[in-house]
Design brief:
Blueprint (H helix, E strand, L loop, with lengths): L9 E7 L3 H8 L2 H7 L12 E5 L5 E10 L3 E6 L3 E11 L2 E9 L13 H25 L1
Antiparallel strand pairs: 1-6, 2-3, 3-4, 4-5, 5-6
Amino acid sequence: MSSQERLTDIRKTLVINAPIEKVWKAVATSEGIAGWWMPNTFEPVLGQEFILHAGPYGDSSCKVTEIDPPNRLSFDWDKDWHVVFELKKVDEEKTEFTLIHSGWKAEEVTKFGQPHSKIRMVMDSGWEKIVKEALRAYIEG
């Protein structure tokens, strides 16, 4: 395998029973992100640097790379990854939310020395629960 071989992006999509504005508030505000994912210093400003407080994994530095309310937010996460939150209005009371977590390279290791291939599997199942259970419960609950 060459060090440039990319692993597939993690993608999680679900339809949430809430208007797009409510979903946007949950995924594009510091308070919202803390409610379903992790404590942070996020501000919805292009180029803004912020911290994700990842508990036992310490703090992760991030930077907002795109913000297009209420449809799309993206940011760089640590040195390795890129995360996108995409929102699409299904109707007045339903929103399709998609998370895309990219930047996975077969031969790369995280700042903790863990291979991307291994961490990608862990994060894939983690996102499954975070997006499909925690995010849904935070918004619909």
